[in-house]
Automatic annotation (TrEMBL):
Protein name: Glycogen debranching enzyme
Ranges of residues in domain Glycosyl hydrolase family 13 catalytic: 152-562
Entry-linked CDD domains: AmyAc_Glg_debranch (cd11326), E_set_GDE_N (cd11234)
Species the sequence originates in: Sellimonas caecigallum
Pfam families, alphabetized: Alpha-amylase, CBM_48
Origin: domain of life: Bacteria
Family (UniProt): Belongs to the glycosyl hydrolase 13 family.
Matches recorded under Gene3D superfamilies: Glycosidases (3.20.20.80), Golgi alpha-mannosidase II (2.60.40.1180), Immunoglobulins (2.60.40.10)
Region forming the signal peptide: none
Length: 687
């Protein structure tokens, strides 16, 4: 008996909490602690109603485990206090006064009301969660990377604005209500920005009467707990239920789900930050520390997780396995993933144990692993991220080279050509496979697509940092006017530039990704770093869908076109035309002009369609010059002809579905700043 409860030694191999008949198992580990106490609270109470010290013989090695009988999981919250040495210069920060969150907590209390500031002096507490969600007979098969089209969205911002028309704005259920829209668009993979529990009020500020929050959520409080403020109703002891419903519904609609995960740092921040969890359990194990006990800050957020320490490796592996087995997640995008490959002294490792373990883990064997292959400490690994042929990368060089090329910069056409065909200069097919590149022009971080062609410079004044935050390297062009305008010529040009961007992105080899709202020209009003803007700057304005319906229809068409013409996505059987699988061209076929001042590029993909056996040949022609040029197409064998599928320079109609694709002779006028996509067809196929 301890504090009036019957107890016994617990299940030492099961970290976190485990419900058993008549009780709950509590297991934690700490290498440096000298003692540990379990604290039990009534819901939202300030003081614990019971404190249960772990007896010495309830500890094996560095693991504490105890079963407490007679507990009703609906009637308590729990936390820990640990005692041990306090020697900051050695990285030891044990403090028995601090209330600590279970590192394996499946739910964090006091976080379910968005925008309500909690008193963290009382500590973060956990709740025991029932794992009784019924997945039914779900048999979702994750897509191949080559078939994947990623749509990045923020759960709250996607439907928070009243224009979204949903019944549960800003929630997982709100996203569910938009699944028919996603299906209509043709999206097959949804990437959710962070849904791990975070405290949006941690650094709240008031700027010009606007409350600024940690809106994006890249400051995790708990790796195992879903963000309960994204649920449309309270889920006491069933936290994650609505998120599971969303994932199940997306799977039923044929879509994969990718989580944006943040294992590079935590919300505990730097030396001035709060005790939440890891700092009080084993600060010198969980964080990368300088020789004098200070925090290395490769994340730009105050600390960096010590990912290649065996204890931290196990935590991250356990976490990802949990999301895959209990939530059926299909993949993960790792924020600032280069930190995951740093050694304990901060230096980059050539064969990081964590990254290798993730690549070969059996439970994770079929999930997508996508690295943001850089960090805030200057380590840039695009094209060189340790991969074991399992890791894909956000291709930052695709974004940068293609932005410059599409707006007409000189000297980038050679790089642009390589980016369109999968960046083989960065990802050698024999070493990285053919789908290591995640191609993108926009994401949450930076300009939206509309703003990319509406602003020459960032306009982040609303963030309260004097417009000093956010990158200055946007490679954007305002098309002749800074910001919003009613000038019809500027508006037409901007629309064509956005169509050009989507046409090239969806005709590039690799996995395409774009930011939600780009398909209908959503704007952030020139803010390229709206991480703190929980307002109209970040919320999608769905009224723009009707205003820019033509752009939406274009993107929908291009997605369907990419799915039909798999020759864009991967090498097929050898072309019966005798064409190579990929080739480059200029205004004259087979003669690409890669000179410094060249702005015209032709890329042809050719092979036999794997399903139909028909010849599948697609020719992408791009003119980023401000004058039209005549383009000669490669001759086709007798019985075949070129037809136009897309022409962004056509003032009346930009897309042409079968069988309305116009025929074209050997030469065609490629308009200024425009893209034409041609397809080779038998000349009798539409007769």
């Amino acid at each position: 008996m301890i504090s009036g409860f019957q107890v016994r030694p617990g299940f030492f191999l099961y970290p976190g909490t485990t419900v058993i008949p008549g009780g709950v198992n509590f297991t934690i580990q700490s290498r440096g602690a000298s003692s540990c106490e379990l604290l039990l609270f009534h819901r939202e109470a300030e003081e614990p109603f019971a404190v249960l010290p772990f007896p010495d013989h309830y500890r094996i090695g560095f693991v504490y485990s105890m079963i407490v009988f007679g507990l009703d999981i609906e009637e308590f919250e729990y936390a820990y206090r640990l005692d041990g040495p306090y020697e900051p210069k050695k990285g030891l920060l044990f403090d028995k006064r601090q209330i600590l969150l279970d590192p394996y907590a499946k739910a964090v209390t006091g976080q379910s009301r968005w925008g309500c500031k909690n008193d963290i002096s009382h500590g973060y507490r956990a709740r025991v969660v029932r794992n009784n969600f019924d997945w039914g007979a779900e048999k979702h098969t994750p897509l191949l990377m080559s078939d994947t089209i990623i749509y990045e969205l923020h759960v709250r911002g996607f439907t928070k604005d009243t224009s979204s028309g949903v019944d549960h704005p800003g929630t997982f259920r709100g996203v569910m209500e938009k699944i028919p829209y996603l299906k209509e668009l043709g999206i097959n993979t949804v990437e959710l920005m962070p849904v791990f529990e975070f405290d949006e009020m941690r650094d709240c500020r008031l700027i010009d009467e606007n409350q600024l929050l940690d809106y994006w959520g890249y400051n995790p409080v708990s790796f195992f707990a879903p963000n309960t403020s994204y649920a449309s109703s309270s889920e006491y002891n069933q936290e994650g239920w609505e998120l599971k419903q969303l994932i199940k519904a997306l799977h039923e609609a044929g879509m994969d789900v990718i989580f944006d995960v943040v294992f590079n740092h935590t919300a505990e921040g730097n030396e001035e930050g709060p005790y939440i969890s890891f700092r009080g359990f084993d600060n010198n194990i969980y964080y990368l520390l300088t020789p004098d006990g200070q925090y290395y800050n490769f994340s730009g957020c105050g600390n960096s997780l010590n990912c290649n320490h065996p204890v931290v490796q196990n935590l991250i592996l356990d976490c990802l396995r949990y999301w895959v087995t209990d939530y059926h997640v299909d993949g993960f995008r790792f924020d600032l993933a280069s930190i995951l490959g740093r050694n304990e002294d901060g230096s980059p490792m050539s064969q990081p144990p964590l990254l290798q373990s993730l690549a070969f883990d059996s439970i994770l064997g079929k999930v997508k692993l996508i690295a943001e292959a850089w960090d805030a400490g200057g380590l840039y690994q695009v094209g060189s991220f340790p991969s074991w042929r399992r890791w894909a990368e956000w291709n930052g060089k695709y974004r940068d080279d293609m932005r410059r090329f599409l707006k007409g910069d000189y000297g980038v056409i050679g790089s642009a050509a390589l980016r369109i065909v999968g960046s083989p200069d960065l990802y050698h097919p024999k070493e990285r496979g053919s789908n290591a590149s995640v191609n993108f022009l926009t994401c949450h971080d930076g300009f939206s697509l509309n703003d990319l062609y509406s602003y020459n410079t960032k306009h982040n004044e609303a963030n309260g940092w004097g417009n000093t935050d956010g990158t200055d390297s946007n490679d954007s062009w305002n098309c002749g006017f800074e910001g919003e305008t009613d000038d019809p010529d500027v508006c037409r040009l901007r629309m064509r530039m956005m169509m050009n961007a989507f046409a090239v992105l969806l005709c590039s080899r690799g996995t395409p990704m774009f930011l939600s709202g780009d398909e209908f020209a959503d704007t952030r009003f020139g803010n390229n770093n709206p991480y703190c803007q929980d307002n109209l700057i970040s919320w999608l304005n769905w009224d723009l869908l009707e205003k820019n319906r033509n752009l939406f229809s274009f993107v929908k068409y291009m997605i369907a076109f990419r799915k039909k013409h798999t020759v864009i996505c991967r090498d097929l059987e050898k072309s019966r035309f005798g064409f190579p699988s990929v080739s480059f061209h200029g205004t004259v076929p087979w003669h690409p002009d890669l000179a410094y001042d060249s702005h015209v590029l032709g890329v042809m993909f050719s092979g036999q369609n794997e399903t139909s056996g028909y010849e599948d040949t697609v020719y992408l022609a791009v003119n980023t010059y401000w004058e039209a040029v005549y383009l000669t197409l490669p001759p086709l064998p007798d019985g075949f002809e070129w037809r136009i599928a897309v022409n962004t320079g056509d003032p009346l109609r930009q897309t042409f579905p079968e069988p309305d694709m116009p025929k074209t002779k050997g030469s065609v006028l490629l308009g200024e700043r425009s893209v034409i996509v041609f397809v080779a067809y038998r000349n009798d196929i539409f007769s």
